[in-house]
Write the structure tokens for this entry.
Amino acid sequence: MSGLPGLGLLRRALSRPVGQPRAYSALQRAVGYDRVLRRLAIEVLKVGPDDDVLDVGCGPADILAGLPAGVDYTGIEPHAPYLAAARARWGHRARFIGGRVEELPLGRQYRWVLLLGVLHHVGEAEARSLLAACAARLAPGGALLSLEPCPRAGRPLLEQQLYAIDRGRFVRSEAEQRRLVGAAFSTVQAERWDGMLRMPYSYLLISASASPGAPPAGHLE
Ligand SMILES: C[S@@+](CC[C@H](N)C(=O)[O-])C[C@H]1O[C@@H](n2cnc3c(N)ncnc32)[C@H](O)[C@@H]1O
């Protein structure tokens, strides 16, 4: 998304500090993203005793604050500082793997595959291979949850500029996200999450499953 001339500079200036896990998590809390993760954990995931979760691009794994202590959670993350922070904070109750999901050996499949705030960091070809890798790790009857910023036409300039300064260079419309996810999954449902941050911002939550007969994610029924 294009923006005002200084926005590229601002994005680059923010990029390095936000690559540090403490700054990343602090910024996310400041804008209210912790509430988004909590709602996702409590209202959508509703993890049961037999459910397991693969969190792709887990970052510092802040979502674990909203998940029950006994959850069977695996996070995979290629950015070493985020991975180290996730292990330091949550290593006693979760498993973390360093690397990209495309490199994760096939074999285990998960009830839930989370892809939270990842897709807008990658271009078309990488997004397609990432989504295919997620689909291959999803158990029958399981669901992928993708949460992404998602601009809407006609919103105030301030909101449009907020997407433009995001480190992710590939913020996509709802139609583009549906198309991308639909290339790897046969059932795609989407829901807008607006007004959850302390600034004007819109998210798109997509629930996708591999087979048309698979049950949809609870909140999106
Ligand atoms: C903005 S962070 C989101 C962190 C966390 N999911 C959250 O919602 O706070 C996106 C993360 O995706 C990771 N990522 C990008 N491509 C990936 C891939 N192919 N496999 C796994 N993680 C990836 C990046 O390293 C980055 O930490």
